[in-house]
Amino acid sequence: MSASAVARLALLAHPAGHSVSPAMMEAAFAAVGRRARYDALDVPPEELAAAVAALRQAPWVGANVSVPHKAAVVPLLDELRPTARRLGAVNVVVRDRARLIGDNSDLPGFARALAALGPVAGRQAVVLGAGGAARAVVAALRDLGMEVAVHNRSPERACALVAALGGGGATVLADADLAAAVAAADLLVQTTTVGMAGGPLGSPLPEGVLPTAGAVVDLVYRPAVTPLLRAARAAGLVVQNGLPMLVHQGAAAFEAWTGLPAPVDAMGRAAEAALGGAGRGWTGLADGAGATG
Ligand SMILES: NC(=O)c1ccc[n+]([C@@H]2O[C@H](COP(=O)([O-])OP(=O)(O)OC[C@H]3O[C@@H](n4cnc5c(N)ncnc54)[C@H](OP(=O)(O)O)[C@@H]3O)[C@@H](O)[C@H]2O)c1
Fold it and tell me: Is residue 116 domain-shared with residue 175, that is, in the same domain?
């Protein structure tokens, strides 16, 4: 594609909702001096194949894929990069001439966000949830050498996640063991939809159940402060919401599309502004920031 052509990208999701990605991605391309248009497209399942087929020609550069298409898109692509193959889920499609390559930026996005939090002391992690996001989180934590206990409302889904990732270093946490495991955890990662705007209300943990001294990461970014993060912060724990992961997975996608280093700060500021939180700082929850989330 010539440098002056307007590159096209899209999010394929259903519903596409109030996505932050158009603002974040267009800011990224603008920051490196490229013209790009990024649309959030509401693509119902029966229209996914046609939407993906359209990506095979210029000016399309690629796409993001989100719920509910991350696994369904796999057979529509020509090739998978190793992380996408490992997770069985694609959230980034890259066009290479007429070929479409599937990748997954959730795993490196979470790993980079966690690194920004600083070194986690200890090796015990508890992950709440066993959906698509949890899969990337558990794999990233295993790559860091952590022992991961997965708790999910539906235990069979936690069992399937652990089995799909090859078992080693990850176990399923029974309801009866949840409070003790969380108290002893060096890191708690909340990956369910509980606390998300429009999702189930409240916290996925019973009141008073928190790590004694560990860090707490909640993948939810809307609102900026979930009930779980509010309780964790009140208990003096290090906390991070889902915005750093959102930005870093976007940065990894941008790098897959362009081969350029991502302008991460420009993306973070754009994402933060799109969420209505400009000035809070996108790299985490600075003291007092987003307290009313
Ligand atoms: N920050 C980021 O970059 C980023 C990236 C990806 C996802 N996320 C966020 O992560 C969250 C999960 O996304 P996903 O794609 O993994 O969704 P998903 O595949 O639909 O999984 C949803 C998870 O939430 C659990 N859940 C739903 N309702 C619940 C309830 N009432 N009580 C307890 N657990 C409940 C589900 O448990 P069951 O299995 O029992 O149904 C499952 O574990 C969303 O809030 C999403 O916005 C953030």
Answer: yes
What is the per-residue pLDDT for 283?
Answer: 80
Q: Ligand 1 centroid to 199 CA: how many Å?
A: 9
Residue 198 DSSP code: T
Q: Which residues line ligand 1 (CB under 6 A)?
A: 67, 106, 109, 129-134, 152-154, 157, 191-194, 196, 200, 204, 219-221, 242, 245-246, 249
Q: How far is CA 110 from the centre of its chain?
A: 6
Q: How many CB atoms lie within 10 A of CB 99?
A: 11
Structure token pair of residue 29: 């391309």
**pLDDT per position as a tens digit, 134-157:** 999 999 999 999 999 999 999 999
State how far the Cα of 242 lies from the Cα of 194, in Å rounded to an integer.
13
Considering 8, 70, 112, 269, which one is annotated as catalytic? 70
CA distances from 210 to 43, 63, 84, 181 (A): 39, 38, 32, 9
Together in a domain, 112 and 233: yes
| Whether residues 123 and 212 fall in one domain | yes
* Catalytic residue flag (residue 70): yes
With tokens 């399923």, the residue in question is 172
| Cα gap 78→293, rounded to integer Å | 42
Do 44 and 118 fall into the same domain?
no
